[in-house]
Task: structure prediction
Amino acid sequence: MNIEQMLSVLDPEIVQRLKTAVEIGKWPNGVALTQEQREICMQAVLAWEYKHLPEEERTGYIDRGTKEEGEVCEDDHHKNEPEFKPIRFV
Result:
């Protein structure tokens, strides 16, 4: 079975079960996944999501926000922190 054949039989319910199995390390019947099974399940989930879901709904998506032309990110959350001083052990 190639990847296209595998993806064609997956549906959202099966993908959710695979994701849960990867997350908790067990099949729904309680049997532990082997490392190889975990890797294959994760690959199947990611491949299915890539094919069927928009980017913002995929596993691992990070919303980086948007900026207008010329806009820069401000990093002022360190302004009120005291100067770094290393800890000395005596």
User: Anything to note?
Assistant: DSSP finds three helices and no strands in the chain. The chain has a mean pLDDT of 86. Residues 3-57 form one domain. The first helix runs from residue 3 to 9.
